[in-house]
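Thread: XIL complex, take 2
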Amino acid sequence: MNFLLNGQNATLASIKLGLLLLTDFEKTKLKPRRFVLLIIILLSIVIHGIGQNLLSNGGFENDFSNWTNLANDGAVATYSIVANAAEGAKAMRLKIDQLGSNGYSIQNFHNKWPAEVGQLYKIEFFAKSQSNAGGLRLVQTTGSYKATSFSLTENWEKYQITYVARGTQEDFKLQFFKKNTYFIDGISITPLNLGEVVIPPSGNSSLKDLAGNCGVNMANLGDRTTETEFESILRNDFNMVGSENSLKMKLVKPQENSAYQFANPDRMVAYAQNQGMKVRGHTIIWHNGMPDWVNNKNWTKQGLLNYLKGYIDDVVGRYKGQIDEWDVANEFVENDGSSLRKGSQSVWMRHIGPEVLDSAFKWVHEADPDAKLYYNDYGAEGMNSKSDFIYNLVKGMQDRGIPIHGVGMQCHFKYDQLLTEEVTLAKDIDKNIKRLGALGLEVAFTEIDIAIPKPVSQEKYQLQAITYGNLLKIALNNTPVFKSFMIWGITDKYTWIRTHSSGNDDDPLLYTADYQKKPAYDQMVAVLKANCIDNVEIKEPFLGTPILIPGTIQAENYDKGGQGVSYSDADPENKGGAYRADGVDVSAGPGVNNHTVGWSASGEWLEYTVRVKTTGAYTFDFFTAAANLVGQVEVLLDGQVLIATTDLPVTNNWGAYESTRSDKVDLTKGEHLIRIKVLSPGYNIDKVVVNEAVITSSDSFKEEKERLTVFPNPSNTGEFRLSSSVEWELYSIDGLLLGRGNGACVKSKSGLTLLHAKGNVFRLITE
Ligand code: XIL
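Output below.
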């Protein structure tokens, strides 16, 4: 594919000519005024790229030549050439007095323009409407029908689309579907030069870690975790999962009398919990994905409302506290943004009407008060009638006090749609996110895939990569309103696009069907690195998501850095580089990722953000190697000493790692900063494994005495884990026996409790 534009040469030539004229002014025979005029013409060639425009008479400077203007099917419209121009002296004016019976009754066609198949083009034009929100559609019809809608304002604005030509004689027409007076000017079609597209290889990266630095979730479908390759990518690159189909009503409640089908969503939610991942729930009310019995039943309004309430209680209630974002309502708005979907399409609208939205959001919120509730739709990512309708819809819900927290934009896009940051779609998605953010709502991209019309090729993969990157940039530019970037699948092996497009489009995801990274993946990494890494202080490798405790702190995944540990190393991955006297070095080693951290100076430290799952006692196992010196480590928690000086063994070999267990220490649920500090140097550290400690009867707690002295005023509640051999009794403060047992987990519900285990008195110390 040819990304270079021929017009660039013309531009260069005119610049050269201009320079020549400037330097040789004395020698020219031109009068100064004529000379200035010439320079202006040349500059306008440079600025506007005149000569490159493949569309003749896109400026309406004299007349409508090359255009055919239509107003039929009952439409009444007047066309004129007016002096109110965005560019040059004249523009086209179109006054619509009456719309016709179909959406394309008013349109202007241009003669076909010459295109090169496979060439990338940019179409730009200026437009405005007499009152805000005029709408026009730009239609290209060769190969397949392709229409892009634009929402206009009262001011001249420049609009842009990018696309790859599929035929040699491309149609061009504008359709007007809203009553208004329009002004159009400066339509140009030029080959688009993206310059040299360089997508750096991503190496060993993690999308979620990088995006985590920006506070954005990387989400994907979590229903194929049994496929090894799928699962390992999911775990490495994503921190949030959702189901493609299994939480749709059709699958959850296939028959009126069938039991709920929870096996698949249960597995996904359990997987997410084990991995410390977040979950998106998709979806409760939709016109599609409904079981036939619901669609066909002869409901009364109240009957269907009752059924919905029960369904929400059962389904949302089952996953209470485990789903972070719920797409409560999906695709309720007509494509043209004129209204909610008709009753002929949607069982909810047929029997209940618009109030079903308020009810569903209210009931989902009651069933799971912590979940963020989303309205989700497609074709409403940018600024258009549909997104305007959705904006008003969600605003109305807010005004009525309905719990709604976000808007999901599906983002089923094409590979040539977002090739520059100036395309109208890119600017409009940004605008739309910002206006929703101004309402106090969150935004997520919920079903991203970026399809390629067949045949697919490496060049198309490159363009797809740019589109992915540009979409991601919009997301990153809109934090914290923007929350989750959910891609509708991992591998081109499994994508709904193939069937949905009747086989015309394919390969919309980040990995090929045989799990090879595509340029789109590399470009996402490049965009994340450029936007989500603090460039001043390089802290790679950096795990942006807090490390889940119990869990493993891989030594190389330190985050906050600080004196002595931030580094800049000649080796970009800082792997296997020479040891530095003044800092941390990451080298090849036996660790999970084959990284270890070597330290050389006392006082250095590494800091990790951790998230403790439950309050309780924990042990730390340090996996270290030292050829000849006994090293010492100290651990601080939120700035306080947690584990005092601990000796680390001489293992006699830099490749031989041994573990050293710390004393039991208390950690409270939630996020903390853990600092691992070198007190005495001479060791490499691979990882620190933090596990829940088992309390035995021989345990004595350092602070036990102190705690008992404050008795009888203890105020904390919590839980202990005891090994099975320990018999225990739990008493209230006034000596009432609350329970007794062997081992397992002892919980205290109210503040004033004591635990007696084999003669020892433990106060429940946790918060
Ligand atoms: C699609 C799934 O990907 C397909 O497997 C299924 O056959 C049909 O539904 N908008 C949505 C998604 O909200 O739920 C749809 O998912 C794609 C369009």
